[in-house]
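Cross-posting from the modeling subforum.

Setting up a comparison between two proteins and wanted a second pair of eyes on the formatting. Protein 1 (sequence, then structure tokens):
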Amino acid sequence: MDMNPWGAMVDWLLEPLAFEFMQRGLLIAAVVGIICALVGCYIVLRGMAFLGDALAHAILPGLAVGYLVSAGDRGTLFWWALGTAVVTSVGIGALSRGVRIKQDTAIGIVFAGMFALGIALISTVRNYAVDLTHFLFGNVLGVTRADLWLTAGVGVAVLVIIFFFYKEFLVLSFDPTLVTTLRLPARTLEVLLSILMAVAIVVSLQTVGVALVVALLVTPAAAASLVTKNLRSMMFLASVIAAGSGVIGLYASYYLNVASGAAIVLTCTFFFILIWFGKSVMRKVKGLPVNN
């Protein structure tokens, strides 16, 4: 006798939840997705994807030093990585303003130097290879309760900052010239936004890793930007896409036996392609230019 398809679907959904590591993984994937989506909207609107990629790789020295001084303690690694990301973001801003160097050039210089320093430090520790793989590609199923609480606390802090500076970030993203006209502290806002980016990158390490973190920051926000130009709507839709991708990606990882970080990012990419294709089809039906 055939099994009830609804019952089979419920069993399919509930089976992974029998494991505590999957429960924690699903929670942190959703939380990290929301954090990255909110910050990612500003990244997409301001064209800061290259800076995000640079920061993701520039934290490698911080991870290496944190590992050396703490023997791999995750809490210590988090704060060393965060400190390195913040210093790097502030340093890039100072370098591009202090002399006649364009920002993308400053980003390239700092990115290459910090990444090379990280590789040099890592090469001095032979037993670091396994942990390095986790940082490069993520290990969301290795999340502990402490990791979950730390990520939740950081997420609340990011939400509070975005809430209080929403209007200022909005002006900075859509009309940088108006920032000067309104006499807003443009440099301070840029630094604060870079710090939020650094925080989002560091909290994403456990979920998708250094190699894939930029995709989690950019792809959901880019997909949402295809649907709406209203920032509030864009943030909401990007958060839904990112959190949903985290959950769906983890289920795919569980049943298909693939890397969890890669599964999450591929799910994000799938949603982006689906929305892009749907938007293109709709514009063709309406007789509008696809690239406009």
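Protein 2 (same layout):
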Amino acid sequence: MNLKENYLEAIRFGRPDHVPLADEPVFHSFQFEGNFRMDDWTDPWGVRWEVGLEGTVPFPKGNPLPSLDCLPDFRFPAPSQLVLTDDMRAGLRTADRGERLIIGHLMYLLFERAWAIMGMDNFLMALATHPSESHAFLHGIAAFARGVFDRYLELGVDGVSFSEDLGSQRALMISPAMFREFILPEYIYCLERVLSQKKMVMFHSCGCIDAIAGDLAAIGVTVLNPIQARANDLHKLKSDTFGRMALSGGIDTSILARGTPGDVRAEVMRVMEILKPGGGYVCGPDQDIPGISAENMTALREAGYEVGRY
């Protein structure tokens, strides 16, 4: 089987030849213009973004809705405002679907989008002080995401991906109960048509999210990444999601950045022992950061292929 077929076998808990590596060329991904830029800019939501450290994503510096008391005056952008460029059209025409999965990406899904608009402190406080307005606010964001995903479905994608960082290094940024009250129902809403058409859902969340990984599996998420090794209990993640949701990542980036090739090899072997059995694992770094040496990435790939055979 080719790399795409092997990847699909792995994430479906089938019979892959080997554990896929996260950097294998199995995806043709694209994102509509107007949602995200690696630049200083103001987005359609009115959020001002500024780049800090070179090579990293910009950070929200201006919050257009600091209080949900002003929600009636806030205008949500339309999904139609995002642009499918000529280059994107050409890429979709020429992509080899026998070798590639076509994925439509949306940077900042719901929780991330909400706190960027309001500011983190203001948003988290509003969940407690303005619960009904918080539900309405989050539903408006989810409706935008649903519309973007509808446009991707019209283009014939194999799935959608998005960023949605929910965790700090030690825990969720909101309680599991609040997550299930405010956030999870909106995921179900915005992903409804994607899942009804049996398309893939690629969910990205940094930080400690092992407390709600089972919830994500239950609503139909296909693959969760990057499963930070020092923030999550990998045994719990495997147990809570096995047979329902694949896991991608898990190789400690601090070892990749600071360790020797021997350290990297030992880390790959450690994580493979936990996450490889029974399938549902894609091996790769638990963060994408600048500065990792070519030698350590080579060590990851070589060890991954060596110990990843089924």
